[in-house]
Design brief:
Layout lengths: L1 E5 L6 H12 L4 E5 L8 H16 L6 E5 L6 H7 L5 E2 L6 E2 L5 E5 L2 E2 L9 E2 L15 H7 L5 E6 L2 E6 L9 H9 L7 E5 L9 E4 L2 E4 L3 H10 L3 E4 L5 H4 L5 E4 L2 E5 L10 E6 L4 E6 L1
Length: about 280
């Protein structure tokens, strides 16, 4: 079984139209690794997701889409995707992919400089270090390219939110421990929006290129050797790696979708899950 894999489509209808061409050619399994909707308030994202999934799925009831939200999506995106019978959002449990493998998704990323906070968390209890002097906390966060303040959503409404540096119990690291117990990692394809720290996790700031990956996700891969992990989030990763888009950690194989920033182009992957053979595609 070969899956078509995309990430960071950002609600651009023409990208979903390009993905539909693969469905027209007979591909029946799609993975979408987050940042599904265009930038905007929850009501705009809700309408946008409905429009884009209608484009991808219209007239294709036998297509299955395994999709997760990303850090540029509000929670209504996850809820809206579940309206479609063809879409499975595997963020609550492992779902069967075929007779041999399951699919699990994880949408969260470490805290970013941006204002969308529905799918952000502290990475772990150690990083970044928090100064003991409260007056030094904010400068330290700025130095680490973190914005502790922003908004979370409930339904279609937005509310002010601020991460508490003194409380990191709800972290990506804690979630990884739970994730490992939901299925056999050696028989699971994981869809992460975030890449592991140090692997295809390039971002940019005013100070230049930075790492935007998760140390906790990297630790999960090292410890549990998942069969396959799929990652989005870094638009520039593949181009900066001069066309490389796979990495190996132990017996685990990871792939970076690397969507790029050209809205007229759809970059993605074709993956045979059983053999873990991967081919880069541009539509």
């Amino acid at each position: 079984m070969t899956a078509a894999v995309f990430s960071d489509l950002h609600g651009i209808p023409s990208r979903f139209e390009k993905a539909r061409r693969l469905a027209d050619q007979g591909f029946r399994t799609f993975f979408l690794a987050g940042d599904i909707a265009r930038n905007g308030k929850p009501d705009l994202q809700q309408a946008n997701v409905r429009e884009c999934l209608d484009i991808l799925l219209a007239g294709k009831p036998d297509v299955r889409v395994y999709a997760i939200p990303g850090n540029d999506d509000w929670r209504v995106v996850e809820e809206t995707m579940r309206e479609f019978a063809e879409v499975i959002v595997p963020t609550d449990r492992a779902y069967p992919l075929d007779d041999a493998f399951s699919v699990l998704g994880y949408p969260y990323v470490p805290i970013t400089p941006f204002l969308f906070k529905d799918y952000e968390k502290w990475d772990d209890e150690r990083y970044p270090e928090i100064p003991a002097d409260p007056a030094e906390v904010e400068p330290a966060m700025i130095a680490h390219q973190l914005n502790l303040e922003g908004y979370v959503s409930r339904g279609l409404e937005l509310y002010d939110f601020r991460f508490d540096p003194a409380d990191r119990a709800d972290s990506i690291s804690a979630d990884m421990t739970k994730l490992a117990g939901l299925s056999d990692p050696r028989k699971t394809a994981y869809i992460f929006h975030c890449p592991p720290f140090g692997h295809f996790d390039f971002g940019f700031s005013l100070g230049g290129r930075i790492h935007i990956g998760s140390r906790a996700i990297a630790g999960f891969i090292r410890e549990y050797n998942p069969w396959l992990s799929i990652h989005g989030h870094s638009h520039e990763a593949v181009s900066l790696m001069r066309g490389e888009f796979t990495f190996a950690v132990g017996d685990s194989i990871g792939v970076s979708v690397g969507s790029g920033n050209d809205p007229t182009v759809l970059n993605g992957l074709l993956i045979d899950v059983a053999s873990r053979s991967v081919r880069r595609i541009t539509l």
